[in-house]
From TrEMBL:
<dbReference type="InterPro" id="IPR036428">
    <property type="entry name" value="PCD_sf"/>
</dbReference>
<dbReference type="InterPro" id="IPR001533">
    <property type="entry name" value="Pterin_deHydtase"/>
</dbReference>
<dbReference type="GO" id="GO:0008124">
    <property type="term" value="F:4-alpha-hydroxytetrahydrobiopterin dehydratase activity"/>
</dbReference>
<dbReference type="Pfam" id="PF01329">
    <property type="entry name" value="Pterin_4a"/>
</dbReference>
<keyword id="KW-0456">Lyase</keyword>
<protein>
    <recommendedName>
        <fullName>4a-hydroxytetrahydrobiopterin dehydratase</fullName>
        <ecNumber>4.2.1.96</ecNumber>
    </recommendedName>
</protein>
<comment type="similarity">
    <text>Belongs to the pterin-4-alpha-carbinolamine dehydratase family.</text>
</comment>
<dbReference type="GO" id="GO:0006729">
    <property type="term" value="P:tetrahydrobiopterin biosynthetic process"/>
</dbReference>
């Protein structure tokens, strides 16, 4: 579940290992390019933390963030 806090949508994803986490990150990267909206993220071994915020709208959560979050969940 995505959580909206401090003007960001955030979600953590856990995978069985680093390779699975990295494969997911690659899919999200292509999706982000398609949406022309790029996440802030952090990966440590099998955990990926994603933050979405719209920088050109004053670092607030916008429809762009919600649309990308929905698309990420559909992967």
């Amino acid at each position: 579940m995505w959580v909206e806090k401090n003007n960001k949508l955030t979600k953590s994803f856990r995978f069985s290992d680093f390779q699975e986490a990295f494969a997911f990150m690659m899919r999200v990267a292509f999706l982000a390019e398609k949406h022309n909206h790029h996440p802030n993220w952090s990966n440590v071994y099998n955990t990926l933390d994603i933050e979405l915020t719209t920088h050109d709208k004053g670092n607030t959560v916008t429809e762009k963030d919600r649309n990308l979050a929905k698309a990420i969940d559909e992967i």
